[in-house]
Amino acid sequence: MDLSFGPRYESFRQEVRQFISANRHKAPGSGDKPRSRVRLDWQALLIENGYAARTIPKQYGGFGAEPDILETRIIAEEFSASGTKPGMGGLGISMLTPTLLEVGTEQQKQEIIPPTLRGEMMWCQGYSEPGAGSDLASLQTSAVLDGDEWVINGQKIWTSTAHYADRMYGLFRTEPDTPRHQGISVLLVDMKSPGIEVRPLIDMTGDHNFNEVFFTNVRVPKEQIIGKRGEGWQIANVILKHERGSLSSVNATLTRLSLLQQLMQKQTLAGSRVIDDPVFRDRLMKLKGRALALKFNDMRILSASLNDGQDATLARMVMKLQGTELRHAVEGLAIDVMGEIGLCYEKGEYLEDNGMWQRQYMYYLGLIIGGGTSQIQKNIISERGLGMPKEPKFDRDQFSSQPGR
Amino acid sequence: MHFGLSEEQTLLQDNINRYLADTVPLDQVRKFAAGEIDNRAIWNGLSELGVAGLLIDEKHGGVGLGSLDAVVVADCLGGHVTPDAFLGTAMASRALAASDRDDLLGELAAGEIRFGIAFSESVGARGDAGVIIENGRLNGKSILVVDPDADWFIVATPDQQIALVSRTEVTIEPMTTIDKSRRTCSLTYKGSVAKILSDDPDVYRKALDTGRLVLAADTLGAAQYMLDAAVDYAKQREQFNRPIGSFQAVKHLCAEMAADLEPARSLVWYAGHALDHVAIEARESVCHAKAHLAEIGTRIAKTATEVHGGMGFTDLLGLHYWFKRIGFNRQLLGSPELVRAEAANLAINVE
């Protein structure tokens, strides 16, 4: 057990700290919108200093450093600890860019990566459809080649950021007469194309996070494809590889837990502090035990990615399930701590923390469902992690032109 | 940066597990549970592997290892529901080292003498049990004392002093508990001659933390055994012409057990590391490890039994030995509620 990162990394940490304290006055706040000057300038400054797009080659507009897990982590930790806006992390930067570097054409890399890194070209991801959620491979939105163009018809759903994205990378059925996993391609669609309609999907928090996207004879140039025709499912798996455990960041949960403790010290019930109530204390400590277990699990995962021969397969597989469930429970305890006052929402004199606890309580229920539901996670853990027999699949050999259900 | 077991610790784990698999199979545990054998031979074998002297420094004839190594050992012992004497040995190693009776460490390290632990009256006294020490003499009663075969007992008083008393000074009455892989007793003191090992609460706490850590790690091993047994059973047991492990209702139970257990392993490892190396986090980490392992251990014990269906409920598979061991570890040296209250006191300022 050696939990220090070593002197080289500690001096790197000091560099990051110095940069942050010297420049944080230039950082955008929560009110600064995407594409605002202050956000674009901040992103440019971060790239120039290697705190964003750090490992993307210089020729594509990145900083060009060698990949280093600990450096990446230190940067994330320091920006988070100081409450400074880190480099942009949208779908285009975190998912599409590394995928293009791996499987894109030279022309795609040159055209797409630099403006994406700068935050000037924003992306959304067109995967789920009304009839294709957990069973994504049953997707039916079609793209038919007509001369030099694909013609797209159908509908996507749960498309976050579609209301301001410039482009979409998405999965479309291009080969209707092949087995369903082999009939999909990844196409790149300009969101300003005629025939695209974006409708907001308001979620239970009351916010506009998601959209439905309708395609009616949308025409896309033939070369706007990643990989070859019918390779979409494999490419989607390459894209997925780059989805980090960002859905369930343990450090953020620990921060919420200490804010919850402060809330309990402040809230009173019949004149006594809630923190002095043994039942609430016990509930807080139960969650803290779970949170610490995930914190050290996360350290084990980090360690396994640094040291050969250390296996953390199961430890990794359980993080999405446990991280989102725990976060939901932390936000939920805060509402119980407030009791009847916890019912207040959106505005009013009794509203605590601007309704953040209530909003996060609901938002994290969304994250329990999104990105692979808890039930799908349990299938993955049991089948891939524990080697249990698969559910019989009835649809493997079915052709996609036949409805899957 | 390395979070996990070292090569030496993995080797230690392999050695202990191999010994236990060969020497202490379930039929040995059954014989011990039925009172047909005692555990002297088992403990002698473990002592030869260095288990008795694990936490004792080399100067006193021990191996000189630390709390994380104790976690490794207890994990193995729980996994095999071993009738062991590790809890008392580990706690006594810490208590004696901080006292002027460190002369006993040599025999302890060799497995020649054993120590029982009477801490319940300090952690949370029940009923008429309770101890008083005055002028070098003990009066009162301790219950749920681990190891009636011990040569010495370490007794903790409500004001967090720890005293050493010989078995010849006390009346020992066996107690029957749910967990037959261990033996417990009550001790009655009537002016029993006792020696105060330490009146420093930190010495008491260090011994208690060590004991709680050992119990948490023991549950980790026992719960891992139960999960593995459930997964194996679900893979081979067939109903409706398919292995029951292919039903989501069953495989999700197994996934939930694994999802609880993997992070818990990291927590116990860290608590073992912190107890020796991160003073400000040591106690809180151990409290959380003890309480969290009690919670997830209990859940796994129940769920793994359910996955086995009716067979899990029988004596045939002996799964109940692990179920009961986890139950024992949950209550001894502090139930989860009690330990979490201590953790809260460490984390929250009281007004």
Summarize the structure in short.
Chain A is an alpha+beta fold and 405 residues long. In chain A, 43% of the residues lie in helices and 15% in strands.
What does this structure look like?
The complex is a heterodimer of chains A (405) and B (351). Chain A has 405 residues and is an alpha+beta fold. Chain A has 3 domains: 8-88, no CATH class; 123-241, Butyryl-CoA Dehydrogenase, subunit A, domain 2, CATH 2.40.110; 245-385, Up-down Bundle (Butyryl-CoA Dehydrogenase, subunit A, domain 3), CATH 1.20.140.10. Helix content of chain A is 43%, strand content 15%. In chain A, the strands form 3 sheets. A 4-stranded mixed β-sheet of chain A has the order 1-4-5-8. In chain A, strands 2-3-7-6 form a 4-stranded antiparallel β-sheet, with no helix packed on it. In chain A, strands 9-10 form a two-stranded antiparallel sheet. In chain A, a hairpin with a 5-residue loop joins β6 (196-202) and β7 (208-221). In chain A, α10 runs antiparallel to α11. Chain A is globular, with a radius of gyration of 23 Å. In chain B, β4 and β5 form a beta hairpin. In chain B, the strands form 2 sheets. In chain B, strands 1, 2, 3, 4, 5, 6 and 7 form a 7-stranded mixed β-sheet that branches. In chain B, strands 8-9 form a two-stranded antiparallel sheet. The relative contact order of chain B is 0.12. Chain B folds into 3 domains: 7-109, Acyl-CoA dehydrogenase/oxidase, N-terminal domain (Butyryl-Coa Dehydrogenase, subunit A, domain 1, Orthogonal Bundle), CATH 1.10.540.10; 115-199, Butyryl-CoA Dehydrogenase, subunit A, domain 2, CATH 2.40.110.10; 203-347, Butyryl-CoA Dehydrogenase, subunit A, domain 3 (Up-down Bundle). Chain B contains 13 helices and 9 strands. Chain B has 351 residues and is α+β, with helices and mostly antiparallel strands. The two termini of chain B are 40 Å apart. In chain B, α10 packs antiparallel against α13.
